[in-house]
Amino acid sequence: MLKITDLVKRYGTGNPVLKSLDLTIEGESVVSVIGSSGAGKSTLLRCINRLVEPTSGSIELNGTELTSLRGRELRAARRKIGMVFQGFNLVDRLTVMENVQSGRLGYIPTWAAVMRRYPKKDIRRAYELMERVGIAHYANKRADELSGGERQRVGVVRALMQDPEILLADEPTASLDPKTSEQIMGLLRDLAGELKLPVLINIHNVTEAKIYTDRIVGMRYGRIIFDDTPDKLDQEAMDQIYSGSPHADRSEDLKEAS
Ligand SMILES: Nc1ncnc2c1ncn2[C@@H]1O[C@H](COP(=O)(O)OP(=O)(O)OP(=O)(O)O)[C@@H](O)[C@H]1O
Ligand SMILES: [Mg+2]
């Protein structure tokens, strides 16, 4: 279970980008986060895997408080959080297998990784997962020889090789054509069920969010203003999530403060 309580993130001395945010994700649900550009979706994901430091608040993953972890403990916790990126973040000149095995970094000794001496069970697991997502025949191809959809499948397998307890995806389909985008969303949904994994996806495509996710979280200027099943996301909710200006929101903040 991921349990976020009263999370605040402020970059430097600016206004908070996340404002006392609460979010709990249980079980193997697939949750999408929607909202205008700048709403704080990426910041939320980055706070969870500590790519950015939360200003205050609590983020618990299966009972472990993530916000206070340092050093070795932080690295161990990060392994439990699989991350899928819009730009795939593959190493182009490495093969698919090498990219996928980099998900095991932190589990195997550095020398073994450098020598590409992967444990047999990791190779087996990689083939299982690559088979599952349809890229096993590309194992020895260089990553830069693949199409976008294939590259994102590599990204997904690499994240799953970490044996994560949660999967976070920041606009995983934004660089893909519509059909491939749907395939990747379907894949993420199916894998969540098969691996009993909660998945949190930032996405701009609301139609896909409705089709492929169980729950939609709508963010506006650092707050969650909608959190419900896709069928509840009507026009009024959409207008609230996507309307307004940062200026309007500041006046709301001032009202709250006074
Ligand atoms: N490293 C940073 N330093 C300062 N401000 C930042 C930083 N990263 C993000 N911000 C600001 O925080 C706010 C939220 O940004 P964030 O990237 O989380 O939004 P987003 O919802 O993911 O937007 P998009 O849909 O465009 O990806 C924006 O106003 C942005 O300018
Ligand atoms: Mg973003």
From TrEMBL:
UniProt cross-references to CDD domains, sorted A to Z: ABC_PhnC_transporter (cd03256)
PANTHER family hit by this protein: AMINO ACID IMPORT ATP-BINDING PROTEIN (PTHR43166), PHOSPHONATES IMPORT ATP-BINDING PROTEIN PHNC (PTHR43166:SF6)
Annotated SMART domains: AAA
Positions of the ABC transporter domain: 2-246
GO MF annotation: an example: ATP binding
Keywords: ATP-binding, Cell inner membrane, Cell membrane, Membrane, Nucleotide-binding, Translocase, Transport
Name the record gives this protein: Phosphonate transport system ATP-binding protein
Database matches in Gene3D superfamilies: P-loop containing nucleotide triphosphate hydrolases (3.40.50.300)
Top-level taxon of origin: Bacteria
A Pfam family this chain is assigned to: ABC_tran
GO cellular component, one term: membrane
Region (Disordered): 238-258
Listed Basic and acidic residues bias regions: 247-258
